[in-house]
Write a structure and sequence with these properties.
With 324 residues, the chain is an alpha+beta fold. Helix content is 31%, strand content 19%.
Length: 324
């Protein structure tokens, strides 16, 4: 236990390099309480988190709300495995290193734009998303290889910038890349590029996806991070989730919370996108037989109908530019 604690919190400046997700689970065949082992490791660090965040002036309720995610994942483990346990060390590592905070309904973490997309803005305030150069896309506007499907008609994106403007491939309102390049005039400027500082946005499983609460969380983040981490000059909020799949709008009512959440973002495709995020978040596991999908809600029925019609669900990206 001491060795794991040292490795997580004392021995490495960048704990992400530890590849925590590959740390083995300890089965109950070792001891009936062995699945709780990693909970004990993280619990030992709770006082240090409170001390550090208190010194920054962060209100104690925010620290409590942030660390309470540990309880949510313990409960989720029990729900799907029938016993107490914990297997989200790589995720809670963010909370316990003060790189993620829950502010109301949503969570936010320090991140960088990791995908080859850019945001442009003109003098009238119009915003466009475009692809960076040298990405390989399918004719349907998704990355070649998304859903493990490769196309012989895949095309390679181009990007040029000159005094005449920016010539690149636009990402449309459904979050799909257009094959024909568009020339954006010199009034368009790049306001977000790969590697820029952003805040990742996450939705903990704590109840309904209340849209006013989500909006309030985003507003709270725009105040919280400049106040307590002024050096983190982020340009946007990003979200990677099944909730950002524009295909949901083909099945769900426009006034549903899921569609209202979807409409908060400018959408973009993700490389290696698949349906694993959707199934693990909704059903707790990837289903090998889609006939197992229940029909308890309009969402369940939509998921099943789309697959029966030959469609594929996929995780997608969403961007909300910071209101500077």
């Amino acid at each position: 236990a001491w060795h794991c604690y040292y490795m997580l919190f004392l021995g490495h400046k960048n704990a992400q390099d530890l590849k925590i997700s590959s740390w083995p689970a300890i089965p109950d065949t070792v001891h009936k309480q062995a699945p709780l082992f990693y909970i004990y490791i993280f619990a030992q660090h709770i006082p240090a988190v409170f001390t550090y965040q208190s010194a920054l002036g962060i209100p104690r309720p925010i620290t409590v709300d942030t660390l309470s995610d540990l309880i949510l994942w313990i409960e989720k483990f029990r729900r799907y495995h029938g016993q107490f346990g914990f297997d989200q060390m790589h995720w809670l590592n963010n909370h316990f290193h003060s790189s993620l905070f829950r502010l109301g309904r949503l969570q936010f973490n320090f991140s960088a734009l990791a995908h080859k997309i850019m945001a442009l803005k003109n003098s009238s305030g119009n915003i466009e998303l475009i692809l960076d150069r040298d990405t390989f896309m399918r004719p349907d506007g998704n990355y070649d290889g998304a859903d493990s499907v490769f196309s012989p008609q895949a095309w390679q994106s181009t990007f040029t910038c000159s005094s005449g403007g920016i010539n690149a491939h636009r990402i449309n309102e459904r979050g799909l890349a257009e094959k024909e390049a568009t020339l954006f005039g010199p009034e368009y400027k790049i306001i977000l590029a790969p590697g820029d500082s952003v805040l990742g946005m996450h939705i903990p499983e704590t109840g309904p996806l209340d849209i006013p609460q989500c909006v309030e969380s985003i507003k709270a983040a725009e105040i919280f991070f400049p106040r307590y981490f002024p050096s983190w000059n982020f340009s946007a909020f990003t979200c990677q989730s099944w909730l950002c799949d524009s295909q949901l709008a083909d099945y769900l009512e426009p006034d549903s919370n899921i569609i209202k959440f979807l409409k908060l973002f400018r959408l973009y495709p993700l490389p290696h996108a698949n349906d694993h995020n959707l199934f693990t978040q909704i059903f707790g596991r990837v289903l090998s037989d889609y006939n197992e999908i229940p029909e308890k809600s309009s969402l369940h029925r939509a998921i099943k109908k789309h697959i029966q019609q030959g469609g594929k669900w996929r995780i997608s990206g969403g961007i909300i530019l910071r209101n500077k």
